C-alpha cells in the first residue's frame, strides 16, 4: 500500500469501480454507501453483508494494494478520522452504545485491544533497535506537533526517569530547529518523531531533513503507511483508533512506558564504578537544592 493511500481509500475504490465485475461492485457499493459501518465488521460479517465469500473480499483488498481486511478497516478509519468533523465522530462513536455502562465497557475494551495489538505489531527486534539508538545518541531531539505533543511530553518525562535527556524542538521556530540539529555531529544526534493521522507537516519536514543529511530518525506513529516510516531507521506503530471514530493515546503511552523501562534496564548495565558514584552525587545534589523547594 502506498504512503498516504488511506487518505483517499474511497477514491481508489471509485477509480476501480468501472472495471470491476458484479461481485466486486457489490463489495464497493457496501463500502461507499456506509464506510463508517464497515469499520466495525468482521471479515465474516462483511462478506455476508456483501453476499460474497471471504476469499473474494481478501482478493478485493489485494487489488487495492491493501494487505488484509484489517488493513482495509484501518484505511477506512483513517479516512473517517481525516474527513469527518470531530463533532460527527463523537456522535458516531457514542451511537454504538445503548447505555453509559455499555459505553464504559466498550472504551476500556477498545483501549486494552489497542495496547495488545500495538505490542503484537512491533517486533522485539524493532523495539530493541529503537532503544539502542536512544542509548547510543548523545543528543536526542523530539519533533511533535498539535495532538502529538501530549504523548511527546510524556515521552520526555519517562525518558528523564530512565536517565536520558530528550529535548523538545519548537516546531514553530524553524531557524532554531536548524541550529539545534546542526550543533552536534550527525553520528551523535538522534531525532525522535511522534505523529499520527492527520500527520503534522512540520514533523514530517524535520524527519525528512534529518534523513537527507544523515541524522538518524526513529519514530512512533500509527500506521505502516504513515509518511514518517519513509524517513525512519525504525518506526514503532501504535493502534490509535478507538471504536472506529475517535483516537486514543493509551497504546502510545503504554509503548512509551515499555521503551523507558527497556532503556532503564540497558542503562543499569553501565560500569559498577559509575553506579557507585551515584549515591554520593545524590547526597551532594540534595545538599545544594534542599532549601530551594
Give descriptors for this structure:
single chain; 293 residues; alpha/beta; five-stranded parallel sheet; two-stranded antiparallel ribbon; 15 helices
Topology:
Layout: H1 9-17, H2 22-33, H3 35-38, H4 43-49, H5 54-63, H6 69-83, H7 86-94, H8 100-121, H9 124-136, E1 139-143, H10 149-162, E2 166-168, H11 174-181, E3 189-194, H12 201-213, E4 217-221, H13 228-231, E5 234-237, E6 241-242, E7 246-247, H14 250-267, H15 272-289
Parallel strand pairs: 1-2, 1-3, 3-4, 4-5
Antiparallel strand pairs: 6-7
Helix pairs in contact: 1-2, 8-14, 9-14, 10-14
Radius of gyration: 22 Å
Distance between the termini: 54 Å
CA-based shape = elongated
Strand content: 5-15%
Question: Could you explain how this protein is built, in words?
Answer:
The structure is a single chain. The protein is of the alpha/beta class. The protein contains 15 helices and seven strands. The strands form two sheets. The protein has a five-stranded parallel β-sheet, with helices on both faces. Strands 6-7 form a two-stranded antiparallel sheet. Helix 13 links the parallel strand 4 and strand 5. Helix 1 runs antiparallel to helix 2 and helix 10 runs parallel beside helix 14. The longest helix has 22 residues.
Amino acid at each position: 500500500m502506498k504512503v498516504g493511500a488511506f487518505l483517499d481509500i474511497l477514491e481508489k475504490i471509485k477509480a476501480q469501480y468501472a472495471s470491476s465485475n458484479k461481485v466486486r461492485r457489490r463489495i464497493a457499493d457496501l463500502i461507499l454507501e456506509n464506510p463508517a459501518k464497515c469499520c466495525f465488521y468482521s471479515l465474516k460479517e462483511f462478506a455476508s453483508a456483501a453476499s460474497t465469500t471471504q476469499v473474494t473480499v481478501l482478493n478485493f483488498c489485494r487489488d487495492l494494494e491493501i494487505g488484509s481486511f484489517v488493513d482495509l478497516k484501518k484505511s477506512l478509519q483513517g479516512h473517517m478520522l481525516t474527513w469527518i468533523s470531530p463533532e460527527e465522530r463523537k456522535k458516531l462513536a457514542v451511537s454504538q452504545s445503548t447505555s453509559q455502562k455499555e459505553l464504559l465497557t466498550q472504551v476500556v475494551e477498545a483501549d486494552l485491544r489497542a495496547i495488545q495489538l500495538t505490542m503484537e505489531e512491533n517486533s522485539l527486534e524493532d523495539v530493541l533497535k529503537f532503544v539502542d539508538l536512544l542509548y547510543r545518541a548523545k543528543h536526542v531531539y523530539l519533533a511533535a506537533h498539535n495532538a502529538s505533543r501530549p504523548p511527546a511530553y510524556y515521552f520526555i518525562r519517562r525518558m528523564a526517569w530512565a536517565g536520558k535527556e530528550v529535548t523538545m524542538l519548537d516546531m514553530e521556530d524553524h531557524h532554531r530547529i536548524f541550529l539545534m540539529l546542526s550543533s552536534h555531529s550527525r553520528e551523535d544526534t538522534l531525532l525522535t518523531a511522534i505523529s499520527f493521522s492527520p500527520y503534522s507537516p512540520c514533523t514530517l519536514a524535520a524527519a525528512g531533513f534529518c534523513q537527507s543529511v544523515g541524522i538518524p530518525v526513529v519514530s512512533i506513529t500509527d500506521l505502516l503507511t504513515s509518511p514518517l516510516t519513509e524517513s525512519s531507521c525504525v518506526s514503532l506503530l501504535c493502534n490509535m483508533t478507538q471504536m472506529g471514530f475517535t483516537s486514543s493515546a493509551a497504546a502510545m503511552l503504554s509503548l512509551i512506558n515499555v521503551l523507558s523501562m527497556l532503556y532503564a534496564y540497558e542503562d543499569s548495565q553501565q560500569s559498577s564504578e559509575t553506579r557507585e558514584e551515584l549515591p554520593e552525587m545524590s547526597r551532594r545534589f540534595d545538599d545544594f537544592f534542599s532549601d530551594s523547594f
